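re the bet — no i am not wrong, look at it urself. input seq straight from the record:
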Amino acid sequence: MAEVEEICDRIGVIARGKLLAVGTVEELRNKVREKEGARYVLEVQDLPVQRVIEGLKGVKGVRSVEPVNGHISLLTDPDARLGIAAAVKSMGGTISMFEEERMDLQRVFLKLIEASA
């Protein structure tokens, strides 16, 4: 799949003889994000992890939040990022890392296949 991602401008996903999706890799990622949400890793300075987790649970668009190796893992609606940043700021924290977990083409393909079943 990595080769396909590097070589192809557009990709079609077919399962059981049915065309499920066509687009660039980023368009296909966005299609999965719209249904499944976006996953982020967040690191905050000046606040305990548990305090940040509790504060983010009520932010619009946050579906789940949990500690992972001293960081915070979030599953959110695709447009929740600004609300999360504002919430951390209002708690008095400083964001030192806020990255989306990269979704490779294999994962995108599997999610599109699962959704069609």
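see?? DSSP finds five helices and six strands in the chain. told u. also The mean pLDDT is 92. so pay up
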